[in-house]
Amino acid sequence: MAIDDAVAASHGYPYFVQRGGDAPCRRIVASPEAGRRLASAAMEAARDDFDREKNQYYRLRYRELEMLRLLPVARAAAEAFEGRERLDGSQLEAAIRRGLGDEDSAKRVATTRETLDR
To answer: Cβ of 22: how many Cβ atoms within 10 Å?
Structure first.
């Protein structure tokens, strides 16, 4: 997995950039006979490792949001991000309010935002 590929596959999420770099390193450690270079087959396997880890993370996060009954909020935030790289605080709070289904109290919006930021 080349650096550019790791960054692109991470969608700019720092944790995934880190994991994308870690996958090939683990392959090198597991195969000392490869030296410091990995064959393209090993790089493809590292990409598969990374994709599995990323998918596992998303599944766990989805279950967490589902358990907290925050999937509508997450969907509203995802819709607000469509076509944008960032949301400012007021845009995110508006999306949270839409996801909560009403103009709920500022305290509930703040608590929900903190939960989503984890």
So the answer is: 15
